[in-house]
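Exercise 7.
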Amino acid sequence: MKKMGIGVIGAGKISEVLHIPNTLYSEYARLVAISDSNEQRLNFFREKLKDEKISFYSDYTHLLERDDIDAVIVALPNYLHAKVAIEALRKGKHVLVEKPMATNSQEGEEMVKTARQVQKVLMTNHSQRFFPHHQKAKDIVASGLIGQIRLVKTMFGHSGPENWSPKAAWFFQKDSAMFGALGDLGVHKVDLIRYLTGLEITECTGMIGTLEKQGTVEDVASAVLKLSNGGIATLDANWITKGLEENYFVIYGEKGTLKIGQTDPSKIDIYLSKPVTMHGEIVMKPLFTNEDPYWKMPVIDHFAKVCLELEEPIVKPEDGLIAVKVVEKIFESSNRGGAMKINE
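Solution. The predicted structure, written as tokens, is:
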């Protein structure tokens, strides 16, 4: 079976724990090359992988010239996502780009337009769609068990990227990241609201702030979102959580409530009032923990299979774009005051 030749552009922490190991162990992809402008990071992977078949480049454009690279993973600071992804698409490569897809919706629209023109796969790494408990919750909601969705409450907070990737100072600078906690963590939940409920976000009211971190981006963000069925969603994202991270999703329906990861990270709680009153639990084994040597996730396999036309994409190009649009509007609401229509 043909394997997709993969080039990884950006050798930071996310590539170390997610993209590179999952490409190495994939049945559908093979790691051809790694590019990074930081020679120390390239040397780190040279020593770690000790594989003469893998090439290393300080200039990603050399990687893009290789005919044996079918697809690239763009894992760079946010401001480079659109530029490098569009270059790769125009060189005939499929693209998996880290979230957020881009730093504004205009960039995102150009990425989507280019992917259509060259007929290549463009996928944003909205990885939380692949979590088993989220996929199970999506099935439960789609079954109608909890009825029409009335309210969603979701939260993602931890102590900040400096405690995960100490050398990634770019996270805190607006010119390189554009967004802080909202674009880093909140964008996951914006995407999950649409994915789990099957509803669109039509309007938002937001508030952002920088309360603790030294930088030019927000470390706290909150938003109230109107859903296409008239329901409401609340979203909180922050980099100031002390202790264990908070990463949960609650859906309140007309017949019951679904709590995903709120009482226990591995558990889905189901509370029903109709047709009978009951409480049930579904325990799902997580794909990985922070103690594991890498994050074992099916994102790379799925991306490669989509490129090989073996599967339909779980994340379509428009999904990454819509998430950026909503984040933009939350910022606009915070800056200008008042509610903002998403598509105006």
